Amino acid sequence: MSVFNDLLFGLSVALTPTNMVIAVVGLILGTAIGVLPGLGGTNGVALLLPLTFTLQPTSAIILLASVYWGAIFGGAITSILFNIPGEPWSVATTFDGYPLAKQGKPGLALTAAFTSSFIGALVAIVLFTFFAPPLAELALKFGPPENFAVLLLAFSTFTGLGGGKPSKTILMTLLGLLLSTVGFDIITGSPRMNFGLVPLQSGINFIVIAIGLFGLGEIFLTVEEGLRLEGVKGRISFRDLLETWKMFPSYLVTIIRSAIMGFWIGVLPGTGATPASFMSYGLAKQFSKHPERFGKGEVEGVVAPETAAHAAGIGALLPMLTLGIPGSPTAAVMLAGFFIWGLNPGPLLFATNRDFVWGLIGSMYVANVIGVILVLTLVPAFAAINRVPFSILAPLIVIMSSIGAYATNNQILDLWLMLGSGVVGYIFKKLNYPLAPLVVALVLGDMTEQALRQSLIMFQGNPAVFLQRPITILFLAATALLFALPAIREYGNRRRQARTPQPDAA
Amino acid sequence: MRKAETAVAALLTLFALGMIREATKLSVGWTGIGPGSGFFPFWLSVGVAVTGMIILTQSLRAPRRVEDSEPFIPQRAWKPLLIVLLPMVTVIALMKWLGIYIGGGLYLAGYMRLVGRFRWPMVALISVLIPVVLFFIFEKWFLLPLPKGSLLETLLYGR
Q: How much is the ipTM here?
């Protein structure tokens, strides 16, 4: 059982004092980021990326991953105590978490959220541990045509499952790929698509764009809406712990279902923790004996979305590590880090950088155990972060964003690029253009172009190459299905409407 | 809202057309060593242009709704948005001289005073403390050279 050996090795990497300290720092920062509205996992990770330049790659990925886990834990705190989701994936947690807190049971709701988040993570990490090596091994056999088909499949999940308007999703995906071509040709190295502007010759910096779109864009939106926080004070007593944990055995089925479902939803790039949490909430309500209690303070309504959200967060790293395809925008930012740390993402990492891969997997176990203890004990401290006035927080986020954007390339021009993407991100978000496909496509652009051109070179420009290989046919069929899915759904809706005489009911 | 939708779709389409022009300066088709440099960007920008035009026609032909007449940015939101944005533009424009620490501190102080209505002593305390902490984190511990600006360079090192 080489998996167990690898895992033990990974745990030994993750348990070194340096990496433990890094995980704790990452978790605390991440939880703070998760608590703060206007600062999410994606830009939190992007802002901290420059700090990892001087670290070993293994420590660097442990730091960023810990920030991610912390943000997932932290999102629940504001949802339950303030009725304001700190992260999009904790929206579903507000439905029952806030009513519970208002009924004077914030400790119970928080314990339930953290515990289920932890169990969801644990189930997902076990799945991760056993699925990652065979997936990487399979991916090692991929040639350029297979790689291109997998990438297409990844992009199609945004259109098929992302839930936005298909035309806008496709446009954003293409735009992300297009922007990645600016600078120079990755195969010949000659400059191109730079409109004769020298600064554009090095290409468009992905991190800067991500910080602008997610960091500044979010600040602009928060400023526009005007932020008011009114919360319930939260503290977890030892009695809360025991009382909540006594209830957990009865949620076993919900937890296992939410965790496994969340994991696989997280693996797909087009979806992620947010839809996973909503779906899991919906299913829990459907299967419940008391669906009428949901929305009024049902503990199961906190358990289900939290389990799924954390499982999906873990799942998002599976394609990142094995295929080099990020399962979420946050994973996309981490993947950008791979290049900066001098690593080549993809299945080869399992052979060439064993300490990096298994150190990350080992740290998932370690960091989530530390994480759940941290949040259970430090809830009052984290909740207090929300008392920092927004008029200090907003400029601070702006300053941190600028530092993050500048530090990747050391040029002031990038600050203008960040500002521009912030404004564009604000406009796109208001008009419901999805940002995730843009960001993921931008980071995968070079890989996609390389895979496509190499496939065409291999077979003298004959596109039939994609239809002669069994794996590619499989992926392309799935891709076609996903791209067609919105149209199929539309058709189904119309037929249903035609059958039911009163359209108001639909 | 509707005007914004139309305008953004039109701008995206225009951008794509510009990219098509840029791509056609390179070899778009087959060259001796496979597809040319312009091949991938060309077809992508064609794709963006086509989807952009689809969104444009959709927004022009869509039936009018009540919320269409709402302004894209609500009247009351302009002031808070500009208070975030304009000082940012100013500080970035002066980055060469102010640097990120002094510039960031001034930005923080201005925002705290204008939006948070903090008293001056508090403004001074926070907007000095935070840049100093950041300076030690980035400059001293992580050895990341951030733009210090000519002002701080002179003050610190007499250059």
A: 0.92
